[in-house]
Amino acid sequence: MSMERWRPGRGLTPWRPLEEMDELRRRFEDLWSSWPTLGRFKTMEWVPAIDVYEKDNKYMVKAEVPGMKEEDVDVSVVGDRLTIKGEKKAESEVKEENYYRSERSYGSFFRSIDLPSDADPSKIEANYDDGVLEVAIAKTAAVKPKKVKVSAKKQSKSTK
User: Fold this and answer.
1) Residue 61 to residues 11, 39, 150, Cα–Cα distance (Å)
2) Are the C-beta atoms of residues 131 and 64 closer than 8 Å to each other?
3) Which of 25, 23, 2 minimizes the C-alpha distance to 12?
4) What is the pLDDT of residue 160?
């Protein structure tokens, strides 16, 4: 007689311990991958938050890059793609009489954005202030809509 396990909604099923161990392993992997800061089992990746919006005659891209210096951030355009990349470095060291603590964290990021067809890649400005990178991309003049006034001719009653 084989052992059977009762599962709600499924009824009795044969007990397969290796399959259950595999399922348990998958659940733990899902748990660790959803919490990258738990333990030191997974490397932490940092990607800055960005906002992309349209303002007046230009497109704006804002990226939050706190704790970085402007020389650590690189903005480039190749074709119709804007790329923001950089490297974050932080070191902390405390020497006391009873203990010593040293922490280092390094990481690089890479964000790439496709530019709209009316963006002018030759007219881009980037400013960095207080942990926020702001990139302004001008729109091309040829694509701007031109207002055309519509006038109507009055018909005379004799032509009807």
Assistant:
1) 55, 34, 37
2) yes
3) 2
4) 56
Domain harbouring 85, CATH code: 2.60.40.790
Domain count, the chain: 1
- In this prediction, residues 96-120 reach a mean pLDDT of 86
Contacts 24+ apart (CB under 8 A), 17-24: none
What is the structure's pLDDT at 36? 53
pTM: 0.56
Residue 135 confidence (pLDDT): 95
Residue 54 located in a structural domain: yes
Residues in contact with 109: Cβ distance below 8 Å, sequence separation at least 6, in sequence order:
46, 47, 48, 85, 86, 87, 88
Kindly list the distances between the CA atom of residue 125 and the CA atoms of 56, 66, 75, 79, 128, in Å, as whole numbers in the listed order. Answer: 15, 20, 10, 16, 10
Residue type, 131: G
